[in-house]
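Design review, sub-item: ligand-bound model
Attendees: FS, YL, KQ
YL presented the inputs for the glycine complex:
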Amino acid sequence: MIQFEPENDRAQLEHALAFAKQQVRSLIERHPDFYPMYTKEGRWKHEGPVWTHWCDGFLPGMMWIFRRHSEDGSAEEQYWHEQAVRYTKPLEPRKDDREVHDLGFIFLSTYYRWCQLTRDPALNEVIVQAGKTLALRFREKGQYLRSFVAENSLFIDILMNVGIIFYAARETGDRKLRDIALRHCFTTRRVLVRGDGSTAHEGLFDLETGEFLKQTTHQGFRGDSCWSRGLAWALYGFGTSYEYSRDPRFLASAEACADYYITHANSDGVPPWDFNAPAESRKLLDTSAAAIAASGLLRLSRLLHDPVKGHFYWGAGMRILHSLCEKHLADKNANWDGILKGGVYHLPKNLGVDESVMWGEYFFVEALDHALH
Ligand code: GLY
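KQ shared the predicted structure:
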């Protein structure tokens, strides 16, 4: 259970943001135009496998946030703008990428932020196209957007991407797109969220009938366990689904997942990699799940109608963020390329275990952005 007292040490958060800028600047200088995913012994540059290509938006996404946190008209603002554009533009062809279910991750962190700044219709068109491409993954039999691994597979992670379909539906007025997004969220809620607010990583379906068969996992401990990053994706993703649809059932699911997180995370708010792994294994934390949860809780707190609960979620998000700054920032280790230590990518495949991971960096910086605004 997270223990928290109201705290807001702004200087600590500002230090973390300054350190994040420094680490990203040094990555740009040492390895120009390289989009890393996870570190190996603290180093971004290595030949380790990636499993799937879902992370390229997170590095430029941070640059857009850094631009926001630079003085208007300053050389620093110009630097981050130029770098953000330079690293965002090469992603454009991915708007037609049918191999991944991650187009929300790639475009909402980049083109969406760029478009918010300029309102350029050509940028908007890229986001809309990415939303349309993602919607092509929808399976009528089963009512879900299929994951990258197989036709019969639904991932909890896709909830973080469905926002781009809601966005495309809103921009184009296409009711079919909105309907696909809604139906995917309802199926996810029905088959991957449990009565106690915990979540499963993956659901499998019968391709002939569309019948839901079972909960399973790739990155978690087992099918009936709660992989902490999946839970963090859910609490954040249902919040986004509510923001677009205003359907109170999605808000209820976001709250159920948030409450499970708050009651099961360690007292400082940083969770084990899987809440139901054996005790010894639970000593391995996942700071990236904590960063996503922190950002998701800070966002969710602003969506709630009940100010007491909103205040509670804000406090929980801030507690997690301060714990990450205090205990997991890499600022004491000169040989570490990343910002946040202690992330876990794929434990069963032994990829990026107890390392910096690019989505952990991004959602940590995004949480700092919420907290400092
Ligand atoms: N594949 C998304 C994740 O590792 O959370």
